[in-house]
Design brief:
Strand order of the largest sheet: 2-1-3-4-5
GO biological process, one term: proteolysis
Order of helices and strands: HHHHHHHEEHEHEE
GO molecular function, one term: metallopeptidase activity
Helix content: 40-55%
Largest sheet: 5 strands, mixed
CATH superfamily of the largest domain: Cytidine Deaminase, domain 2
CATH topology of the largest domain: Cytidine Deaminase, domain 2
Oligomer: single chain
CATH class of the largest domain: Alpha Beta
Keywords: Hydrolase, Metal-binding, Metalloprotease, Protease, Zinc
Protein name: MPN domain-containing protein
Number of helices: 9
Strand content: 5-15%
Family: Belongs to the UPF0758 family.
Length: about 230
């Protein structure tokens, strides 16, 4: 392998990450090499691969790194505005790609795709976020929206706002979703009361609440599966 102290541009062409990716495919590159392509440049005394390796080590991998916002990334040594913007863009592209996959899907027939999206979009949020997924008569997803955001352990939820959102989306059914930043998915008594209130409000406009999901650390709780709905 080329001398890590040298600029990547001075490496033999066959050893440069970008050229290797194009010639051998993405799977031929290490995590640090893939990240180096996004970062484009290193910092003084450290090439892009070494910087990528340091960032992944410091943050424990891609998941934690790509969950960081501008403030946290700005505190990270070696990251300027251009690199921060690239990382934020990569994170958002990942979320939007997964979101595109769920539109038109049936939650009943393909729950894995929906859960993959919910994990990426909610599991690392530091505050509780209440999301509503809107479905049509065929139980196909036609949209989703974050309606409420709260503190680390609660979010104020207003059933009338959910009813308005349902009407705006012309939905006939909804799935309620919120995260628990603690990572634990057991519902609180408040979660149960809020769910009952939303179900009652949606009944006034003939809209079904198909489930209420709580998202934790790569796990979920389903009110329907638990017999609570």
């Amino acid at each position: 392998m080329a001398n890590a102290q040298l600029s990547i541009k001075s490496w033999p062409v066959s050893e440069r990450p970008r050229e290797r990716l194009l010639a051998q495919g993405t799977e031929a590159l290490s995590d640090a090499e893939l990240l180096a392509i996004i970062l484009r440049h290193g910092v003084q005394g450290k090439d892009a691969i070494a910087l990528g390796r340091d960032l992944l080590s410091q943050h424990g991998g891609f998941r934690e790194l790509l969950s960081k916002g501008v403030r946290d990334l700005s505190r990270t040594k070696g990251l300027g505005k251009a690199k921060i913007a690239s990382l934020l863009a990569l994170s958002e592209i990942t979320k939007r790609t997964l979101r595109e996959k769920i539109i038109g899907k049936s939650f009943i027939r393909d729950p894995e795709s929906i859960l993959d999206y919910l994990y990426v979009s909610l599991r690392d949020r530091k505050r509780e976020v209440f999301k509503v997924i809107f479905l049509n008569k065929a139980n196909q997803i036609i949209g989703e929206k974050d309606l409420f955001e709260g503190t680390v352990d609660s979010a104020a939820v207003h059933p009338r706002e959910i009813v308005k959102a349902v009407l705006d989306h012309h939905a006939t059914a909804v799935i309620l979703v919120h995260n628990h930043p603690s990572g634990r998915t057991a519902p609180s008594n408040e979660d149960k009361d809020v769910t009952a209130g939303i179900v009652s409000a949606c009944q006034t406009i003939s809209t079904k609440v198909l489930d209420h999901l709580i998202i934790g650390n790569n796990q979920y709780f389903s009110f329907v599966e638990a017999g609570l709905m």
